[in-house]
Write a structure and sequence with these properties.
Blueprint lengths: L11 E4 L6 E8 L2 E6 L4 E9 L1 E5 L2 E5 L4 E4 L5 E5 L5 E8 L1 H8 L11 E2 L2 H6 L13 H19 L10 H14 L6 H8 L3 H12 L3 H18 L4 H8 L4 H12 L3 H21 L1
Antiparallel strand pairs: 1-2, 2-9, 3-8, 4-7, 4-9, 5-6, 5-8, 7-10
Length: 283
Amino acid sequence: MNPIDPQHRNDWLLRAEPVEGVERIEAFFQAKAYAMHRHDTYAIGRTLAGVQSFNYRRSTTHSLPGQTMVLHPDEPHDGHAGTGEGFRYRMIYVQPALFQEVLGGRALPFIEGGVTGDPRLWAATDALLQQISQGLDPFEQGDALAELAHALAAVAGTAPARSTGDFASVRRAREYLDAQCHQAVSLESLELAVGRDRWSLSRDFRVFYGTSPYRYLTQRRLDAARAMMLRGVALAQVAASAGFTDQSHMTRHFTKTFGIAPARWLRILNGARATEILRNTAA
């Protein structure tokens, strides 16, 4: 087990610039990290030190070094230290659409319990869970994502592609939401753009992308909001530009999605970045 440096026990979070739909973080939390929340991506990672505990699908799970965490899209979960020494971990967040490019309409893989010791997933996540300071080439990332999608399907025992469900129309819906995420979007406009009724479209969207069309749209707005926050844009302006009704609307969705309020997320992230700059300067 990797020891936790007692000199760096304050909460911190490092975040790599997202590359083609994949976000990577490394973080340390002393006690409680996140309240219950859910997001529309897979969260896949490793605990590097300590015990990482979380409530997930009606039970409490503990992640230890040497295991792989795989949290399915749209499943509520939280995060806290399982012992008094805190925990350190790395995580990647992958949009289900990227895995569907490999799986071609198969049901999304589900790993029971959220933690596994299967060596196939450990090997398949190696490249994607490198140190945050080491950049990922898009070609390397794409290859690693394909390997990970196949490993997830194998470990989960994912069935062959469904004979029912219109994957092509669901893809059109996703592309429409991507293009319109900064504007007001109604169910009627989505139906017209895709040529499907809302109920069957919502059902198939959940099958192929693991979440509802509305939650997918909200996540794209939150992605835009975080990018603006990191550029120093005021929160009220961020909310308006990202497509939210107002700042409180954005804050509510941000906290439900990431388990942490926007101001605290930015404060922890900026503190970790400042510490990293000082370390590099001293070196």
